[in-house]
Design goal:
Mean pLDDT: 90
Strand content: 25-35%
Number of domains: 3
CATH superfamily of the largest domain: Periplasmic binding protein-like II
Helix content: 25-40%
Number of strands: 16
Number of helices: 8
Order of helices and strands: EHEEEHEHEEEHEEHEEHEHEEHE
Radius of gyration: 24 Å
Distance between the termini: 37 Å
Largest sheet: 7 strands, mixed
Strand order of the largest sheet: 2-3-4-1-5-12-6
Structural class: alpha+beta
Shape: globular
CATH topology of the largest domain: D-Maltodextrin-Binding Protein, domain 2
Low-confidence stretches: none
CATH class of the largest domain: Alpha Beta
Length: 297
């Protein structure tokens, strides 16, 4: 069945480390997704003109670049590997989503006592990201034989295919289980929202803007907190400087307490116990920290 061109289309990972978090992001943005069957390839939002297409992660950039899907959620590692193979941009990163964080790293046998990038010169390196690895090697003025593998990269040294590997690392447990240890960072990655650079008509453009506004709101509230506190007016400057990531707070006089105010602020950074202790030391009292469910920027 061909896509409904009256609706937006978003490519997301069918299964894997980004799949569940991508669905949750859209649900947090207020979308009710209708999915049927275990091996479904598509889903429809019941309360927004959006259809999801579930595909392999390395196919997502192609779907978006070709305009089959206006939007997509993909790892930066996959996006950058794809972009390095293009002569001109066909897809753009719209927002970093804060989940799916991992690193593309060079790994070597754990018997290696020390490592310098120069040790890669002339070596065979196995990877599923040949373009990213090639850029890294050339940036250090080195040459290496890059062996492209589509899976089980960590087995390459054991099988005598390559001495080094370049693979995604989150916990490092898989490398350790195969007698390898990360020795060098190549690329830092997280999930990103991307959109096609193909022209989008005005009707669809308005839908894209509305959806992006919702997603921006979800991202903004992920770490944001709403803080309310009382303080003497004389301490306002010190307290405002301590509030993490807060812009101009709302200040309201306290009835019956001359020289004292209530301060309300949205803090767009993490609020730790140490922050509350610093606020109290600066003169704040009755400090209340609350989560934010929704926020429209």
């Amino acid at each position: 069945m061909s896509p409904d061109r009256n609706r937006l289309h978003m490519a997301v990972q069918k299964s894997g480390r980004l799949s569940d978090r991508s669905r949750q992001l859209l649900k947090d943005a207020g979308l009710r997704l209708s999915e049927s069957g275990k091996n479904h390839l598509a889903a429809r939002a019941e309360n927004f003109p959006l259809d999801l297409m579930f595909v392999r992660d390395d196919d997502i950039p192609t779907f978006v670049a070709d305009g089959v899907c206006e939007l997509g959620i993909v790892g930066q590692n996959v996006l950058e590997e794809y972009a390095l193979g293009l002569s001109e941009p066909r897809i753009e990163e719209v927002a970093r989503l804060g989940f799916g964080k991992c690193s593309l790293k060079i790994a070597a046998p754990d018997t290696l006592n020390s490592f310098q990038p120069a040790m890669l010169d002339g070596q065979r390196i196995a990877t599923s990201y040949p373009r990213l690895l090639k850029r890294f090697v050339e940036s250090h003025g080195l040459t290496a034989e890059i062996v492209t593998m589509r899976g089980a990269v960590e087995l390459a040294p054991r099988l005598g295919i390559a001495r080094f590997v370049c693979d995604l690392v989150s916990t490092g447990a898989t490398l350790e289980a195969n007698g390898l240890a990360p020795v060098c960072d190549v690329f830092e990655s997280e999930a990103v929202l991307v959109r096609t650079l193909r022209p989008i008509d005005n009707l669809h453009s308005d839908k894209v803007s509305a959806l992006l506004a919702r997603i921006d709101g979800v991202i903004a509230t992920a770490e944001s907190k709403y803080i309310v506190l009382n303080a003497p007016e004389s301490a306002l400057a010190s307290i405002t400087a301590i509030l993490p990531g807060a812009e101009a707070p709302t200040v309201v006089p306290l009835i019956g307490r001359p020289g004292h105010v209530a301060v309300q602020a949205v803090c767009q950074e993490s609020v730790f116990w140490e922050t509350l202790e610093r606020l109290k030391a600066a003169g704040a009292s009755a400090i209340l920290v609350m989560p934010i469910e929704k926020m429209m920027m």
